Amino acid sequence: MLYFAQVTAALLAIAATGQSADAPPSLKDIFRADFMIGVALNQRQFTEEDTNGAALVKRQFNAISPENVMKWESIHPRPGPDGYSFEAADRYVEFGEKNGMFIVGHTLIWHSQTPRWVFQGEGTNAASREVLLERMRDHIHKVVGRYKGRIKAWDVVNEALNDDGSLRKTAWYRIIGEDYIAKAFEFAHEADPAAELRSNDYSIENVPKRKGAIALVKKLQAEKVPIGGLGSQTHANLSSPSAELLDAALAEFAALGIPISITELDVNAAQGGQRSLSADVSQNAQAGAGGVVDAANQKLADQYASLFRIFLKHRKQIKLVTFWGPTDRDSWRRSGKPLLFDGEWRPKPAFDAVISDKKKLGSNGDAR
Hints:
Elements: H1 2-17, H2 27-30, E1 36-41, H3 43-46, H4 51-60, E2 63-66, H5 72-75, H6 87-98, E3 102-109, H7 129-146, E4 153-158, H8 171-176, H9 180-191, E5 196-201, H10 207-222, E6 229-232, E7 235-237, H11 243-254, E8 260-268, H12 271-275, H13 284-287, H14 296-313, E9 318-323, H15 349-360
Parallel strand pairs: 1-2, 1-9, 2-3, 3-4, 4-5, 5-6, 6-8, 7-8, 8-9
């Protein structure tokens, strides 16, 4: 029985890592000359409790993002100097360093997954602008400062925009004002002047939100705020964004003169995900409804191939492409089977399509 278990584990590891004699190149190797290939990790992968998932990550990716362990509610759940909890985040960073990976910090300021106490003042009153700014500064200095020189890029402000391109009226906005974004970047730069500091948002391919994202970056640049990158989440479905829409958006983003990162890539194949184009976490249940569409694997492969053709066309501006999870079993949209590897750590037709398409394309992303 022990021998059988050992053989089974070995076979699973081969399937996960692709290390058989005729295995295709890993994603990180085949795109090495173009951009880094990253993945968001949960705690089971970076602690290597999920041995197959950890092996897959090491084989396929050269950059990592933390799915949840660096969000405020996880790393700073309680007020006061003893309110920080760094154990999981430390393990995440150590995993990246041990495996020679580009390490991303996600995320410093967001309207979601932030404890209520952050915005509370005395009694039932909201915190004042001064109090909330001090809490923000303390949080950013402690978190970014702890990993100074180790975490190379930070999603400083996450999802600051509405779908129409206007600023979300979050608690950060209502209490501090519009300049909460600039202050967050300034505090992060103080804590680590060498880190790449990104604004990160979803659906910024769409024209109204794209205009808002570009206006925000230009405003920060004009005010000499140290923004050093733009993160486009790119939570896609089987038809959106189209190649034409994504191409136009990336061309406009490139004109900002800062690196572009695709930060949270997945392609939702659930029937509900074709009706709902929003990547807001509050709408995730709706986007996963109805089971997958017919011929999901082929349609997923076609969309991934289309997206990567455009990424390669803009390879000079794109620094990093990160998948939001290693396998379908790890995905926040697992019912939509949105990633390149299935729940058994095996590559799907979409993986083959991305690899095959790369071999057909020249270095500038044009067909040979």
